[in-house]
Amino acid sequence: MPAILNTTRSHLDWLESEAIFIMREVAAECARPVLLFSGGKDSCVLLRLAEKAFRPGKFPFPLMHIDTGHNFDEVIAFRDARAAELGEELIVRSVEDSIKRGSVVLRKETDSRNAAQAVTLLEAIEEFGFDACIGGARRDEEKARAKERIFSFRDEFGQWNPKAQRPELWNLYNTRVHAGENMRVFPISNWTELDVWQYIARENLALPSIYYAHKRDVVRRNGLLVPVTPLTPPQEGDQVENLTVRFRTVGDISCTCPVASEAADPLAIIAETAVTDITERGATRMDDQTSEASMERRKKEGYF
Q1: CB atoms near residue 167 (< 10 Å)
Q2: Strand, coil or helix: what is 244?
Q3: What's the CA gap between 287 and 228, in Å, rounded?
Q4: If DSSP states are collapsed to H, E and C, what string results for 203-232?
Q5: pTM for the complete prediction?
Q6: Which residue intervals of the chain are DSSP H helices?
Q7: Cα separation of 38 and 191, whole Å?
Q8: Is 186 buried (19+), middle (13-18) or exposed (0-12) by CB count in 10 A?
Q9: pLDDT tens digit sequence for 228-278
Q10: What pLDDT does residue 154 have?
């Protein structure tokens, strides 16, 4: 009797296949793409997908990180180690350099630099002539991101117009851009936070340690657990607590908060994520709490 092949595919297999197809489409259609890699969990998933899409060859694009200068040390160390392990080019451009050039102006040193990354990113796109930036944004993260296409067109000013997006029918993508224009490409746009953690568990992906439960000094402020750091010191009336926490998402120290959690491995995080009803940004980002700092406004100005 001939052997019967197992043709059953999990939802992760389908998501992986779609993302690999998108990455190969970028490599085939774009002249100078780049993969944005911060060391965060979503960009770690992108690296694994790129490995599956292009190994044993080199990636057909460099890696790039827009460094706010206010990142967690554990994440920066992991970023550098992972890029070195892969043997891929890592370009780092700093918001601090944009501040020195005068293209970014902050009211005070401790202000969040998260939104200011848009300026540094646009400067890097112009410097290297990138026509496509691959990133790990997902539709389930935030309402503005849910409006965005997988291949998101940006005009010559780096701006995004949600009312003038290109149709994406039957996985057919329009990658044509004129000089100065570019695309932002999101291969895991259709993934959820739960999908990401299930994939991390399946692929046994390494992540920065702060994604898992650890002890940290925090203060409670506006319903969030604000980490106590030199950039985010306690304010008058704050009570410092040493709690077991983990980060669901990682960004600028001045606006990223952990959540209380005992989850010390991917399977425990999967169990927590399966029952949460608050998005990771809604639960952890101070700069997403007000309309003045809305994601949609920042994206229209060039934010990733």
Answers
A1: 8
A2: strand
A3: 17
A4: HCCCCCHHHCCEEEEEEEECCEEEECCCCC
A5: 0.88
A6: 11-29, 41-54, 73-86, 95-101, 117-128, 143-146, 193-203, 266-273, 280-284, 295-300
A7: 18
A8: buried
A9: 999 889 988 899 999 999 999 988 888 889 999 999 999 999 999 999 877
A10: 86
